[in-house]
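## Example pair
The file below holds two records. Each record gives the amino-acid sequence first, followed by its structure token line.
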Amino acid sequence: MRILQTPVRFYPFIGGVENYVYNLSTELIKLDHNVTVVCANEPICKNNELIKKINVIRIPYIGKIANTNITPKLPILIFKKNFDIIHTHIPTPWCADWSAIITEFKRKPLILTYHNDIVADGFANYIAKFYNLTSLKFVLSKAAKIIITQPNYMASSPYLRKYKNKVEVIPNGVNVNRFSPMNVEKSDNTLFFLSVLDKFHKYKGLDKLLQALVIVKKEIKDVKLIVGGTGELLKYYKQKTISLGLKQNVFFTGFISDEKIVEYYNKCDAFVLPSISAKQEGFGIVLLEAMACEKPIITTGIVGVANEAIDNNAGIVVPTKDTKMLANAIIKVLEDDNTAKMMGKNGRKLVENKYSWEKVAKMMDDVYRGLA
């Protein structure tokens, strides 16, 4: 089948949706689908190129509204393409809106992966609310299938309940061959956090993690936190570590390349993702990557894999915004090496059994073929 993917951006841009589209598309091609990705040219790359047999078409953009690139040529380009299905994504309104309009006009199926609700701060929040009351309803109504990555999202999102008859749960995935245990030189009592460090990703909870680290430091003086990623708030977080007395405990790596990311997972004793917003946290792919590397995870109950982490004893789940409980969980994992190793092995088994991209792509393939 000819699948047209319309994320707002694509590899080498690093982000949850971008990684999702990249890995899913790679596996769909192995299932004999023809996949084309149309996206904004950020970061600036070749306009047309093949990436692992994915045909990538990048379009100039004139600016951004919130975190969405505005690409005026998008509707014309989509209209001209021959496709059997468009697979689009929320929260990227511009791309999703035009995908819905053109599939309606051409009478082709629209698949929508609903990663999370569209929310914002300040003036952008008014724009988000207006969109949710207008265009989002149109996109949801026109989608032949709505994919969510965790079942809890049906309860937490006020916009999906009306469309539950066409909602299917297909989780995120992880490349279990690439993300795997490896022998690397490491130091003890090391935590790892990975995210884009901008205002749109403050919900990942780095502020809370830094506050918890102050408590942890009283028990484990040499605790280390490696913060991977970059963005407009990098300076803010660096200043916060100084004000909290954590300058000797927190290390900012900046952007971590694909070649190095597996090594960073393997260098840590535990991976921490203390997300604070159920509306914004869709799944948390980084948790799957950490578990695939046999690392225990410490996270909050709103992420997609939280319940299974508990059921499979692959990590510790704490309440959102509870810095004391977060600190206690970190201390427990760092001080009990046997438990940490057991959790890591349990996590690896979990992702191998359920979360490989190969299995996720086959589930998506069934959805596509059911609409053909």
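Second record, same layout:
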Amino acid sequence: MKRRTLSGNEAKLVLQLEWKNEWFLDVATIQKLLKSSKSYAYYIAHSLVKKGWLEPIGGGCYLLIEAKRGYRQLAPRMSPYVITRVLNQPYYIAYFSAAHYHHLTTQLPHVFQIAVQRQRRPLSFKNVLVKFITLKKKKFFGYEKVKIDNEIVTVSDLEKTLLDSLNRPDLVGGIEAVARFLIISAPRINFEKLLIYAINLDNRALAVRLGYLLETLKLKNIPSKVITELVKYVGRDKTPLGEVPRWGKRGTLNTKWKVIENVPFENLLSEVEIR
């Protein structure tokens, strides 16, 4: 087990951080606290990483492994939400990760999903795989600032989480998971906002699947305007309900929505009882 020794400047830095109760830092912070050059700040950071005092999290940022954690050298705040601090572009926590935040599932996400506008490679952080899903700018809306695990982060709101999941059911466990999300969240859904978001996304297949599910799942208190507007997206093309690679292309055609019911009803309902 390596000893966590400190040089004079390293001790000065660590003591200041602990006194201020700051555990997240970057190179600029080191420069400021030590009144040093950028190159020396990088040197100090590299040394503290080797000695077990700092844990790098990318982008020139680090977590302080405080003295009270001793030889175990455990970094604080194990939540993956801290990774959002190093993203140098607009983002929002999305898909299954957002569904978990909105209490649509009790299953802990194995993959932390973040929507971004510029492509970024996945990374591992605290034994969690972080995946970035690239969205076009016109689809980048419907999010809010919230506090999770002492971090202020951006998360898709309930209605956008539902539509993102319906657009990419493969990222949340399939179309049956989307159906479950809709049923569980029905009392909380702002259906007018849901409709506005669906219109803004301007995706015919998404709109008809949404309309089909709202009717088939018999959700209550849906304004008639929502169904009326969604029906306008029905055209000549037929839309499979579930993911074709998983469910195939065959099934009964729902003539109102032109949706191919390629998912057995019992699978669509999963473990949720419709009344």
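Notes on the second record: The mean pLDDT is 89. The longest helix spans residues 38-50.
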